[in-house]
Amino acid sequence: MQPPANVLQHIARHIDLEPAEEKCFLDMLSPRSLKARELLLDEGEVCRHSAFVTRGCLRGYTIDQNGYEHVLQFAPPNWWIADMYSLITQKPGTLIIEALEDSEVLLLSKTDQEQLYRDVPQFERFFRIITENSLVTNRQRVLDNLSLTASQRYEAFCHRYPTLIDTLPQKQIAAYIGVTPEFFSKMKAGLKK
Hints:
Elements: H1 5-12, H2 19-28, E1 30-34, E2 39-41, E3 49-55, E4 58-63, E5 69-75, E6 80-81, H3 84-89, E7 96-99, E8 103-109, H4 110-119, H5 122-147, H6 150-160, H7 170-177, H8 181-192
Antiparallel strand pairs: 1-8, 2-7, 3-6, 3-8, 4-5, 4-7
């Protein structure tokens, strides 16, 4: 399977590559198909790949001791997803990554990513930008969860994931903004008035 051009378009937003460098990168990617509800990564596993979503949607979430799911991230097409703690430290992680629908991803192993840094040094810049953006987003999310109301957190969700507003089940959005599905349904009805 030839990787879709959108991964190269995504990278071109941050760095310029020669055709040989593009080929080097593409040769390191492993395509994988996931069925809806199939796990890419389970809690307690070591994350060995970053995944670029080409079709479908994935979510990264944890489950607390009371059995409640807390969605940390969605990954629609053209987004990267990984358990960054586990990927960087190579220790077992706590993030579960699941396909919300039939999905296609391109996997880049940590080993290949390190090799890519040596073979095409511009990729250090690319992944630094991706990591910095992720760090800023996660910090803002923590601040939002501490200081914003549920309706303001929903507004922030709509801004961050505009393509998912009408496609995700309400319980997934509720788990992302940190409320019960029942509260989310009432809140959303109140916002429409």
